[in-house]
Design a protein that fits this description.
The chain has 242 residues and is mostly helical. The protein has helices spanning 13-17, 38-44, 48-60, 70-77, 81-87, 91-114, 121-138, 146-154, 159-185, 195-216, 220-241, and strands at 5-6, 30-31.
Length: 242
């Protein structure tokens, strides 16, 4: 049985930046926060711009940016075409807004996991892997990483997208490096561990494993990569002892 929570949804920092009142909102809405798409949640709150951005986020984790038409997004949200160009100067402007929204969402996720002091640093990374596997299975391997998807599609076609996506990956590497640095402090990894290189290796491999998981409709590539990652990290400690 689904737990239906009756309350006014709190706005995320991204929602506050893009708040709009184009769609009438009820002061008290019944929303199943686990099952209701975030685009619909935003629409029910009366936030047209955020509804469009979340819809784009949901679609672009499954489909390519270039083959996704504006009309499909407008149709899903249920707003006229004029509303799109009221909020966005172009489809490219919309794409950057979608990337920024995904980054805000993912940053919250990584902060929650990587800064959880109730478990050890390496256990936090394992939890990140486990949640990634659960998310892939939940959406039947149709959704992947929006950053990886758009990077593969647009890197050679548009410098604005290429530079923004590379900046995102560098920021993600820094977040994981901080967690790996803590693993060194907690003696889970040896003092001479190159945490920057290890973090860089993780994101290169993780994005590739997500792509392969979509192709195989299986979490096996994610399991294989994470096993190799932890083996590489922990073998450094074995080599140091020997």
């Amino acid at each position: 049985m689904l737990l239906v929570i009756t309350r006014t949804m709190a706005q995320t920092p991204t929602a506050k930046r893009h708040h709009a009142q184009a769609i009438p909102a009820s002061p008290e809405i019944q929303i199943d926060t686990k099952e209701t798409p975030r685009s619909l949640q935003a629409k029910m709150r009366g936030e047209t711009k955020m509804a469009l951005i979340w819809c784009g986020t949901e679609i672009l984790t499954e489909k390519g940016f270039q083959i996704t038409g504006i009309e499909e997004i407008l149709s899903r949200v249920g707003v006229p075409k004029g509303s799109f160009y009221h909020y966005f100067k172009s489809k490219q402007d919309f794409g950057i807004a979608v990337i920024n929204n995904y980054v805000d969402f993912y940053d919250e996720k990584m902060t929650r996991i990587f800064e959880d002091e109730s478990v050890s640093p390496l256990s936090r990374i394992q939890r990140f892997v486990d949640e990634g596997k659960e998310g892939m299975a939940r959406y039947e391997f149709k959704r992947g990483c929006l950053i990886g998807n758009m990077g593969q599609e647009l890197a050679s076609l548009n410098d604005e997208f290429r530079l923004r996506i590379e900046a995102v990956l560098i920021a993600w590497e820094a977040k994981l490096k901080a967690c790996l640095d803590l693993a060194v402090v907690h003696t889970e990894l040896p003092k001479n561990t190159d945490t920057a290189a290890l973090s860089n290796f993780f994101w290169i491999g993780w994005e590739g494993a997500i792509l392969r998981a979509k192709l195989t409709c299986s979490t096996a590539p994610l399991d294989q990569f994470s096993t190799m990652f932890f083996s590489l990290a922990l073998n450094q400690r074995s080599h140091q002892k020997s």
